[in-house]
Here is the input.
Amino acid sequence: MDYREVSVDREFLLTLSYGADYHEEIESFAADRDVEAARDGGTGAVEDVELGIFDQDEFEYETVAFEEPLEVVACMGSVALDEAGTPVADAHVTLARPSGQAIAGRLERATVFSGECYLRTFAESLDRERDETTGRDGWAV
Here is the structure.
């Protein structure tokens, strides 16, 4: 295990815009407020969703599309800088269908119906890097 201690800097409560792209809302907010590293969580409802499930043999995400309204039961994510220094949102969600059936995965794409997001920023910037053993991106500590 590797680790790095970070200091909490700022905290924000966001109401996401109806019809917006989930990732674009978070990334635009982060860029406008110079957020280079953060943890986020959220609730709400989305539609036109694409989820990714990581294939541990192929080292890539397989995606599944859901063209239906879904409730955001839980959403946990982060913001970190990409190679170009641009904030990028990464989120993993559990979503519910009206039947109560849950589906989950990495949020690749979603249109916001309604949403709230809590964003806790860190004083230090964080970069993402690929772990050669697992093929997954994570915080560079």
